[in-house]
Q: What sequence folds into this?
């Protein structure tokens, strides 16, 4: 039974490939997606594995790894870990804009799910989800300087835009929660506050499907040094500047060798505190292609 909860924001600073294996479509190596929304997501098992893998390098005590995450497969004595990560869901997505390079796009469904998760874990969101839907082809913007003749241009598409001053407050609260308050992140915190755009759920789903980073790769023949015939394949990545959120849950340590009150035993609050200390504001590597700089995320625990 998990007794304590928190939420973890993940801010991508490089392309991220948390894949599903090979597919038979145009994209050979697609990323993970939710079945019901089609939005990119991170499976909780992948997040937990990545955090465990980097726990010691992030400053965590190596003697705590088994207690927090459970023993490695094949260990002589098995017990459950004290930490669980849920699947990460999409909060905001960078979309190329005619002005200001890109915007942080989101939609009522993504905002409502973020608000619900923050509320469930006891982290007061400080803002309310939108009650009115947004029509397809329309959007709300925080920054009127993004517009040309009242229109917002994202990729090759034009949207009727309504400037809403209150969106800057929402952008600031998301930035405060999701992006570390450090000098190197100041530009991006200000940009999220300034260039937040709320699309309709349908229009946002389109970009969540088609605005991913797709990289062609070729397989080189060792003997000829040239590309192998049929060796061309495409890998999909979540673009940098994407923001996701996942639940973090904790129980007391379940190692039977550590009894309540004895040295080394931790309750759920202490477990959450250990994870917060280890990953909050730190750079994590999640997913594949680590040796080519993929999968770099900054975590914020709230």
A:
């Amino acid at each position: 039974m998990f007794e304590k909860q928190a939420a973890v924001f993940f801010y991508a600073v490089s392309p991220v490939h948390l894949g599903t294996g090979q597919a038979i479509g145009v994209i050979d190596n697609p990323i993970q997606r939710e079945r019901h929304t089609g939005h990119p997501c991170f499976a909780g098992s992948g997040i937990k594995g990545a955090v465990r893998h980097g726990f010691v390098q992030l400053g965590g005590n190596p003697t705590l790894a088994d207690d927090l995450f459970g023993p490695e497969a094949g260990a002589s004595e098995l017990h459950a870990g004290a930490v669980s990560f849920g699947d990460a869901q999409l909060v905001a997505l960078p979309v190329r804009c005619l002005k200001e390079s890109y915007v942080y796009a989101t939609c009522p469904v993504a905002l409502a799910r973020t608000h619900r998760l923050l509320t469930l874990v006891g982290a007061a969101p400080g803002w309310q989800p939108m009650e009115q839907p947004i029509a397809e082809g329309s959007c709300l913007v925080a920054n009127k300087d993004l517009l040309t003749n009242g229109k917002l241009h994202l990729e090759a598409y034009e949207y009727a835009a309504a400037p809403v001053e209150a969106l800057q407050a929402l952008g600031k609260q998301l930035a405060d929660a999701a992006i570390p308050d450090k000098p190197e992140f100041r530009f991006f915190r200000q940009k999220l506050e300034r260039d937040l755009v709320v699309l309709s759920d349908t229009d946002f789903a389109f970009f969540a499907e088609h605005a991913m980073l797709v990289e062609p790769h070729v397989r080189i023949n060792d003997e000829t040094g040239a590309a192998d015939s049929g060796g061309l394949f495409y890998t999909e990545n979540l673009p940098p500047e994407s923001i996701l959120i996942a639940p973090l849950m904790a129980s007391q340590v379940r190692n039977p060798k550590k009894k309540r009150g004895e040295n080394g035993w931790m309750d759920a609050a202490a477990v959450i505190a250990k994870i917060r200390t280890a990953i909050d504001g730190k750079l994590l590597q999640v997913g594949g292609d680590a040796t080519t700089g993929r999968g770099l995320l900054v975590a914020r625990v709230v």
The first strand starts at residue 4 and ends at 12. The chain has a mean pLDDT of 92.
